[in-house]
Amino acid sequence: MKLNCILLALLLLLTVQGQSIKAYKSGPRVLTFAEQEYGRAQVKVKSGSYTLVAYTPDSVFSMEYGIDDVHPLYTFRGDLRLNRAACDSIVISTDDTIVMRVMHGKKWTRERPYMGQLTIRPFLIYLEAIVKVPISNYIAGVVEAEGGLSPEPAYHQAQAVLSRTWLLTNLSKHAKDGYHVKDDQSSQAFKGVPHGKNASIIQSAVLATRDSIATYDNKPIIGFYHSNSGGMTTLPHVVWSKELPYCRAVIDPFSKKGSRYEWQQRILLSDWSAYWSTQGVFLEAEEWSTYFKSINSTRSSHWQINEQSFKLETVRRHFKWKSGFVSPLLEGETVVVNGYGFGHGVGMSQQGAMYMGSSGFTWKEILDFYFKDLSFTVVDNL
Fold first, then answer.
1. pLDDT of residue 303
2. Alpha-carbon dihedral 208, 211, 214, 218, rounded to 10 degrees
């Protein structure tokens, strides 16, 4: 019986992994403009031929456009109509670039360029758009959205490997919703195919690391990264109560060169005390001043106050700190929070990696600095 259970678990693992690899190779389905709700969208195929298929409750009809045909600008509203016909979904397929923008509030967003297949569907009173992107275009788009202002090839290569690895381990995250990942920070930032000043550098970096991923014990890692470590990375259990053997906390002098190394937030003592009163903590100003002096300027997972333990990540989210690496002090009626870094602090610091790239480190050396005991392989070898 025990052997049968082990074999069943192994079979299930191999099936899930096989499905992830298949989805990876065919290209992920990405929910676009995920960070906002919108009831109007404009879509246009810039050039080339394309096919538009509209699915209505009663029928399916399609239109084909050639290279020389006029390419119309489609404007869709929340009820999703095409030529006055209500549609369950509209699918546009092309080998060229599809540009899209949405109405956010009373203003149109910037256009985002996509390649692949775009599906638009109604969602309550809003719209949803899902783009099925060739894998190389998706990874290049993520790399640009995450750190496209850097001209350093080694950083982009390291980011490409981590982004590719993260995708492979998260392809089932939203499968029940009809897509694999979102295009915002809850998954990986993705604003379309590269179109900025470093687009060619990024595309070359993705090509140079084609299908390469980071593994530990022959399994893809969860490729954590963040903007700036503040001079010290942390372990995942500090942030998420999760132990991962390939992550490590390192002193990171490279991140101190980044623009997001330091920050400061000023909070009225009355607002600070009001929050802590909801947590059952009632300290006078002098007591807070004494407590702040007892805090070490280092990363920690919890604050101990009056024999009570409070998870620092919860405090960070409430006050919207850029990181949980803080050193507060009291100035009169104001709590001054001196902070270091930007993001959760686990895994690769993007700004640190950029500086390492400019100092001559390779992408493998960058990843080996922020992680431990990694191996590198290609997807086909899994």
1. 93
2. -140
Tokens of 277: 């009163």
Residue type, 114: Y
Q: In the block, which residue shows the tokens 């070359």?
A: 204
Instruction: Please state, in angstroms and rounded to a whole number, the distance separating the CA atoms of residues 15 and 321.
Output: 41
Task: Give 11 or 202, the one with higher predicted confidence.
Answer: 202
Q: Closest by alpha carbon to 260, among 145, 147, 140?
A: 147
Please write the tens of the pLDDT for every residue from 184-222: 989 999 999 999 899 999 999 999 999 999 999 999 999
User: Nearest-CA neighbor of 20 among 121, 127, 135?
Assistant: 135
Query: Parallel, antiparallel, or unpaired for β 40-45 and 375-378?
Result: unpaired
Closest CA to 77 of 92, 87, 68, 67: 87
The continuous run of DSSP H or E covering 138 comes out as helix 135-147
Which residue from 110, 100, 191 is spatially nearest to 143, judged by alpha carbons? 191
Between helices 135-147 and 350-358, what is the axis angle to 10°? 90
Contact 142, 191 (CB under 8 A): no
pTM for the whole structure: 0.87
Question: What torsion, rounded to 10 degrees, do the Cα atoms 309, 310, 312, 318 define?
Answer: -170
Kindly list the domain boundaries of the chain, sorted by start residue.
23-133, 137-257+345-381, 262-340
Other CB atoms closer than 10 Å to residue 126's CB: what's the count? Answer: 15
To the nearest 10°, report the CA torsion of 347, 138, 379, 357.
-40
Nearest to 104 by CA among 72, 86, 81, 127: 127
**Tens digits of residue pLDDT in 95-142:** 999 999 999 889 999 999 999 999 999 998 999 999 999 999 999 999
For 184-202, give one letter per residue: b (16+ CB within 10 A) or e: beebbbbbbbbeeebeebb
d(CA 248, CA 235): 6
**Which of 341, 349, 356 is CA-nearest to residue 152?**
356
- C-alpha 289/C-alpha 285 separation (Å) is 6
Dihedral angle computed from the Cα positions of residues 114, 188, 343 and 161, in that order, rounded to the nearest 10 degrees: -100
CA atoms within 13 A on the CB side of 236: 15
Angstrom distances, CA of residue 140 to CA of 29, 203, 288: 15, 6, 47
